[in-house]
Automatic annotation (TrEMBL):
Pfam families: SSB (PF00436). PROSITE patterns: SSB. This is Single-stranded DNA-binding protein. It comes from Thioalkalivibrio denitrificans. SUPFAM superfamilies: Nucleic acid-binding proteins. One of its GO terms (molecular function) is single-stranded DNA binding. Keywords: DNA-binding.
Length: 120
C-alpha cells in the first residue's frame, strides 16, 4: 500500500543516521519521529492544538545525511513522501505500522497561528 502524504510537524527526537545494505551497496537512511498536529477550530474562531499523531519517517541518501546535520529535536519541518504499510512478527503477534518515506524535508521557519480571509 502506498499513498502520497504532505504534512508539517515537529521532531520528537534528533534524527538517527544508520547505514543499510541495499542491492549490494551501502546506503544512508535517517530515522525521524515527527508529531503532526491537527489544529481544531473552536467556536470563538481560534484554533487549538488538540489531537495529532506521531509517525516514523525515513529519509534516504544524501538527504538523510543533511537531515542529521541540520535537524534537531523540536525542529518544525514540512515533509512530502509516500506512506507505506510495514508488517512484522513481534512478541505479541503480527504488528503493523504506517511509515513515511520522505522525498522532501524542508524547514518551516515560522508558524501561522490564525488565518483571516477578507472579501475584496
Amino acid at each position: 500500500m502506498s499513498a502520497e502524504f504532505i504534512g508539517s510537524g515537529n521532531l520528537g527526537a534528533a534524527p538517527v543516521l544508520r547505514k543499510v545494505e541495499v542491492d549490494g551497496e551501502t546506503r544512508a537512511v535517517a530515522d525521524l519521529r515527527i508529531f503532526f498536529d491537527r489544529p481544531k477550530q473552536q467556536p470563538d474562531g481560534s484554533y487549538s492544538d488538540d489531537g495529532g499523531f506521531w509517525m516514523n519517517v525515513s529519509v534516504w541518501g544524501r538527504k538523510a545525511e543533511d537531515a542529521v546535520r541540520v535537524l534537531a529535536k523540536g525542529t518544525r519541518v514540512r515533509v512530502e513522501g509516500r506512506l507505506r504499510e510495514h508488517s512484522w512478527e513481534g512478541d505479541e503477534g503480527e504488528r503493523t505500522e504506517m511509515r513515511l518515506t520522505a522525498d522532501h524535508v524542508t524547514l518551516e521557519l515560522g508558524r501561522v497561528d490564525t488565518v483571516t480571509f477578507k472579501a475584496p
